[in-house]
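About this split. The held-out portion is used to measure sequence recovery: a designer receives only the structure tokens and must propose an amino acid at every position. Recovery is the fraction of positions where the proposal matches the reference. Here is one held-out target exactly as it appears in the evaluation file.
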């Protein structure tokens, strides 16, 4: 077992020592796993979120300064924010899918089909990559046109056209399922 403090390992990681970061990973993996398993139902999701936590820690390690606080608090703050961001995004995604389901499918069919959300998700997954990205960013992540246009170097008219195409493709995919 490594006798260096977490703060020392954090400083060494900030200076590019990947062995020090590996030791931090070993120290924090299980505590993150035990804590966040309660909030995230699926073990695969927990693993993915923990991986994202460590990627963010690695990405932001250059901002760690043990003079401003302990590594432990700094790392847990990143971990908690990552999980909250995941849960918030998941909630927005579910609400958006429910809204799409109620507006797009339930109105046409006259009833709510239990497989509708799955069908919508599958139709979104079949979209071509650009349309899928724009559709998810606008309808599920609630980004504005301006934010999406800036991120992808598009004009508003180009984005609107791509979103219309995405909605039309989803509608045509779902037509035979209702």
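Reference sequence for scoring:
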């Amino acid at each position: 077992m490594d006798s260096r403090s977490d703060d020392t390992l954090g400083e060494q990681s900030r200076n590019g020592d990947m062995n020090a970061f590996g030791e931090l990973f070993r120290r924090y993996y299980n505590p993150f796993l035990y804590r966040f398993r309660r909030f995230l139902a699926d073990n695969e999701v927990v693993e993915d979120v923990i991986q994202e936590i460590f990627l963010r820690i690695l990405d932001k390690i250059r901002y760690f300064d043990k003079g401003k606080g302990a590594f432990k608090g700094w790392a847990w703050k990143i971990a908690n924010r990552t999980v909250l961001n995941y849960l918030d995004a998941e909630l927005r995604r579910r609400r958006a899918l429910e809204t799409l389901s109620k507006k797009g499918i339930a109105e046409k069919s006259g009833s709510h089909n239990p497989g509708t959300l799955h069908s919508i998700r599958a139709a979104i997954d079949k979209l071509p990559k650009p349309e899928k990205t724009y559709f998810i960013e606008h309808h599920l992540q609630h980004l504005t046109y301006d934010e999406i246009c800036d991120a992808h170097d598009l004009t508003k008219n180009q984005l609107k056209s791509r979103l219309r195409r995405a909605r039309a493709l989803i509608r045509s995919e779902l037509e035979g399922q209702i």
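Annotator remark: The mean pLDDT is 84.
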